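Chain A, query sequence.
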Amino acid sequence: MRIVLVGPPGAGKGTQAAFLASNLSIPHISTGDLFRANISQQTDLGKLAKSYMDAGNLVPDEVTIGMAKDRMEQPDAVNGFLLDGFPRNVSQAESLDEMLQHEGMKLDAVLDLEVPEEEVVKRIAGRRICRNDSAHVFHVSYKAPKQESVCDVCGGELYQRDDDSEDTVRTRLEVYHTQTEPIIDYYKSQGLVVTISALGKVEDVTARAMEALQHEGDAA
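Chain A, predicted structure.
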């Protein structure tokens, strides 16, 4: 299957993408991984992206699209892929359609992870990270440390990252509503959108998504 995963920040896209890609035996292609790989390998696109980033500018759509195209042409993506973080706007979605059409391919589904806005704020603003090891992550509501502000694993200080503050989260949500959410309507017009609730346990959301995608595949 060829799938695009969409949803607001805090919807659990990265977690769900990894599980779904594994269950469907297709590669998980995330924008973040694309940028890191191209920059570390010093590809032409990576160098170009880094020049924009170093100057504090947004990387143009065509650079992101070029990276995605290269990745989707790799042998492991022949039987499908799951795109996470791309397309990020309608212009990128249109370019993706053109690219796939040129290759004689099409998307099978656009999986929309739905989460109420206040739940997104609660999920992200409640995160606390260990200063000693960023892999040690806690949450004031869902995974509280035994002692406030102290890491259960190593005793390091727990803190809230600047980009996890409530004001920053609401700004990120506004950007999502303005730039990315319109692609849902774009894909709805093609009958591709499958919306599921991203509330509940991770494994329950995965099961929900797999069932919806299976139904979509059967319908196709």
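The chain has a mean pLDDT of 93. The longest strand covers residues 109-114.
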